[in-house]
């Protein structure tokens, strides 16, 4: 194995130090993690000073994180890790014509205490500028196509200034987010903002790493959605505006072709000039999809 | 390259997203880091929930860290990373008979504001139990063997309760640490405590990872030393008590054979029943050692 000039037994010794009571899955994950982290250090001839710079970034990420911000998650996002574990977790063929709705990353701005709203409500309580959208659709069983009644659809999006409400002291609490239940036809609906692109925050380690990598920090405009129904696999996803200039170089690598949508003009509605019809397909817990 | 069933271009796309202004060394390190982190995730089929557990550990480490504690560093230490980058950085043959003093990891309990003391002073200001040691030796040029006059020797060690003074509200400030200057013969000397083994703190993520890996948390008894002299490579090391029961399974993998010492009985000194003579060999900045 060892083709380097460092102690050839070191990595194996660290791995072997795990005792017999280590949970099996933890042993598997740590064995691979230790091997890859050590290989990374040897491959790059990582110095003590460089490693310490990394430790400081990691600690800084933790210190910036609280119930409103998760900078450790964002650091992973800018190197594509959240998108990758999302792909791994779901292992679904995403581009085929008829598949369940593809997944996308949760991102750091979800709130577990999102407020219930009524179908047809407006989540836009406090926004400067922007375009209004009437978004609606059905939640259906991916296999039978039957509508799912009383399914939960949760959505959140950033405001036109690029900030989610919990990042922004100027926004009303729970602005631009809501939790809806499908009606007896499996329908959900709400008024929301046509999403706008925004940059990953530049004041923390994730922004600093992006800058050092000379990468553009913007995320393409998107609406976050989580849909759940008893007996079905919960779905976490994002849908993207087909007109967005950052679709091809999302700073966190979350775009999938099947999640790109067209907002179309809506006539005769004083509340919204645009419309989006979007059906969400959930997979039953026992359902097998494309061999997954 | 890709022998897995996930998007074969994903990792290359993340790496290729780095722009032309990326500093060369940063590109090199990030390319390897991204590749290994992605391979690790694919190899273990890492799920979103497992990854999020890791993010929470990372953020927790940062939140526990301050100017007195570095938990991110400790997390690296328990998977051997600090010892490995120490080996990489110094690339010296450590076990040969006549080499400069071997290096060892800094650890999280160094204080940059350590107090100057006089040769012959006692760093033990406030300790319950334990054995006293008179430690002394010379700082010399590794190549010419000439003594180095006015070299700095900094030392720190844990108390008998396993805590460094900054971890322990009960200990006097700067207990068990001191900064010394060698005299005109290159000699340093002080009274200190024969070190005792202690466990890595169990109240943070590093302790939790150790417990999950079913590993013993103790570090073998050691004294930390940093020696510096203008025009010479600074040396950071630890010396270990040959009688310690944890020499073979240090929880942070820092022990090297050449750093294991014998404390010998000392006669006729009311201040100390043990003695340790220990010479420190520094390498001139331009000096070539074993081809390094």
UniProtKB/TrEMBL annotation, chains A, B:
Domain Intradiol ring-cleavage dioxygenases, residue spans: 106-282
Catechol dioxygenase N-terminal domain: residues covered: 24-96
Cytoplasm as UniProt keyword: no
Example GO BP: catechol-containing compound metabolic process
Gene3D superfamilies associated with the record: Aromatic compound dioxygenase
Cofactor(s) listed in the protein's UniProt record: Fe(3+)
UniProt-listed Pfam families: Dioxygenase_C, Dioxygenase_N
Keywords, alphabetical: Dioxygenase, Iron, Metal-binding, Oxidoreductase
GO MF terms held by the record: catechol 1,2-dioxygenase activity; ferric iron binding
Record keyword Metal-binding present: yes
Family per similarity comment: Belongs to the intradiol ring-cleavage dioxygenase family.
Protein name: Intradiol ring-cleavage dioxygenases domain-containing protein
């Amino acid at each position: 194995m060892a083709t380097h000039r460092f102690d050839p037994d070191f990595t194996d010794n660290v791995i072997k130090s795990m005792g017999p009571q280590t949970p099996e899955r933890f042993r598997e994950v740590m064995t691979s993690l230790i091997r890859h982290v050590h290989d990374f250090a040897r491959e790059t001839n990582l110095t003590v000073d460089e490693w310490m710079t990394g430790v400081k970034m990691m600690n800084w990420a933790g210190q910036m994180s609280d119930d409103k911000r998760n900078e450790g998650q964002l650091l992973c996002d800018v190197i594509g890790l959240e998108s990758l574990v999302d792909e791994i977790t779901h292992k679904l063929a995403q581009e085929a014509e008829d598949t369940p709705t593809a997944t996308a990353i949760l991102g750091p701005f979800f709130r577990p205490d999102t407020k219930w709203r009524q179908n047809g409500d407006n989540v836009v309580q406090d926004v400067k500028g922007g375009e209004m959208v009437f978004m609606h659709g059905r939640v259906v069983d991916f296999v039978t196509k039957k509508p799912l009644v009383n399914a939960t659809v949760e959505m959140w999006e950033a405001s036109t200034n690029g900030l989610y409400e919990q990042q922004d002291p100027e926004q009303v609490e729970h602005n631009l987010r809501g939790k809806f239940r499908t009606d007896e036809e499996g329908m959900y609906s709400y008024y929301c903002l046509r999403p706008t692109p925004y940059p990953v925050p530049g004041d923390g380690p994730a922004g600093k790493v992006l800058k050092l990598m000379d990468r553009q920090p913007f995320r393409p405009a998107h609406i976050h959605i989580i849909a759940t129904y008893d007996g079905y696999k919960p779905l976490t996803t994002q849908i993207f505006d087909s007109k967005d200039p950052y679709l091809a170089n999302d700073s966190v690598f979350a775009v999938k072709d099947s999640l790109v949508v067209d907002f179309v003009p809506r006539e005769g509605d004083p509340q919204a000039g645009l419309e989006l019809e979007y059906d969400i397909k959930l997979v039953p817990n026992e359902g097998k999809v494309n061999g997954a």
